[in-house]
Amino acid sequence: MTQNTNKQETQVPFIQNTYNKTFWYDLFLLILLFAPLYFLFLGNRPFATPDEARYVEIPREMLATGDWITPRLNGVKYFEKPPLLYWVGAVFQYLFGLKEFAMRIPIVLFGLTGIIGTYIFGRHFFNRKTALYAAFILGSSSLYFVLSRLIILDMAVSTFITLSLFSFYRAQEETDLKKRRLFYTLFTLFCAFGVLTKGIMALVVTGSVILFWATYAGRWRYIFPAYLPSNLILFLVITAPWHILASLKTPEFAYKYFIVEHFLRYTTTLHLRHQPVWFFIPILISGFLPWSAIFFQSFRKAYSDFKKPLYSFLIIWFAFVFIFFSISQSKLIPYILPLFAPTALIVGHYLNDLISNGTPLKWPFKNITILSVACGIAALTATHFFPELNTTKIELLPYVKALSICFFSIVFFSLPLLKLKKQVFGIALSSIAIMLILIPASPHIQRPSLNTLIKIAMKEKKPYEPIASYMAYFQDLPVYANKTVMVVDAKGELEFGTLIEDTSSWMISNAAFQKELQTNTVSYWIFVRNDIINKLKNENPTIQMNIIACENNVCLIKSKKKKFSF
């Protein structure tokens, strides 16, 4: 039996190496470093649209209606995703209220869990230093950091996929039957939670990585018995009830959820998210700065040991996720998050070998120098390529200049002027500085919010006066209004829900809205884009449209019937 051949780099047995003082010291150090950074000014910006607002509104409506089975967005049935993160969000809303800081806490916890999980896996299968390097590289990578502070499903499902694959590999390497069963149970739990977070995709990614790796490595006989009957029952106990109940309450659920949101989303451009096949290459390079500059060396080193199960497992994991989402007809930046952990481990392993090598290269970080010079120059000349930095996005300009300083500081540290450990320490400090710049810059990067206009409306309007969103659905409008709002002639992602139940009292046509304005004596508080205000006025000549306030190309208008004198 050769299942332990890939542990030759482990310095001490897992039990001794895990529960000694250095293990707890390292965990404390990682939490002490990353927790303040990840939680810092977490509430310094309103909910980002459309994603954050959407994933806050659905839990808000679950609490308001008491219906924890059927997700609703602005009162409309919404079956794009399963409910686990909605449930978590609803619990946090119940405990802490609808506050930006509180609603982002679960996502931060998922991000920190991924860092800790990577450290534990790396410490067991590599060594302590590799684990620390990998955990730091993962936690300080700009894309991972940003997405750990954004209310989206991808960080949660990525963490579950990562932990499930870590647990699987740990299980099939374990000789103790009780521990083996424990890790297969954890594998099952994480797979089930992944499915309840973002659907079948979590199972496809996890299962495919295992399938390809086990076939290549000839590991099927070590995987079984994987306690399939008991774990299959456990998986179904967790995942099946919601799917069954949702189908019973809404017969149309199965088609929308399984066919449209899984199969058609991946194979067609139905959701209008098509990107070229190379889309994730620049995302990966920029998302891992500055460590992405040593990807080639790191993967070349890992590939030289590809015959060893551990290295083939990590490389196949990376390759499958990258290829699977690259050939998809629907692409969004967060989709490749599941490959961050194996990438961090591969780069961390290379970095540890580099530092531990008695005869290091004369210029080991040459590629980091070149990439950082390019990024620094790009940041300095950004206004040439993005003239809006001098106009509508001028608030971002100081942060762009600060980033250029960080990149040039990386250039200094990556030059062979210092000892290797000091170079690594300097580059690491610069990566933390980039994180500190991204925190105050984030409110100016995301799409503008309507929270200021909504606060004005909620303060001045009478309780019985309706709020209307004219020819657009503003995702944060029902969130900050804390109620379902009228939407005029705009359905978008809400269209499916309007077809399976009667929503005509608040999802109305333009003609129906004109009729309401004419027949009702109450004033309407209307949110409308600047470029269609004249359309609203021209189509309702007998209604006085008073502009209360405007911000970010959206205006708040209060309607009032005109008085005619004869």
General description of the model:
The structure is a single chain. This protein has 566 residues and is of the alpha/beta class. It has 3 domains: 263 residues, no CATH class; 91 residues, no CATH class; 111 residues. The strands form 2 sheets. Strands 5-4-3-6-8-7 form a 6-stranded mixed β-sheet. A two-stranded antiparallel sheet has the order 1-2. A hairpin with a 2-residue loop joins β1 and β2. α2 packs parallel to α6. The longest helix has 26 residues.
Overall number of domains = 3
Described by strand count, sense and barrel closure, the largest sheet is: 6 strands, mixed
Which of globular, elongated, flat, extended, rod-shaped describes the shape? globular
- Poorly predicted regions are 1-17
Count of alpha and pi helical runs? 26
Strand content: 5-15%
Helix content: 55-70%
Walk across the major sheet and give the strand order.
5-4-3-6-8-7
E-strand count: 8
* Oligomeric state of this protein: single chain
Secondary-structure-based class equals: alpha/beta
Terminus-to-terminus distance: 100 Å
Computed over alpha carbons, the radius of gyration is 26 Å
Rounded average pLDDT = 91
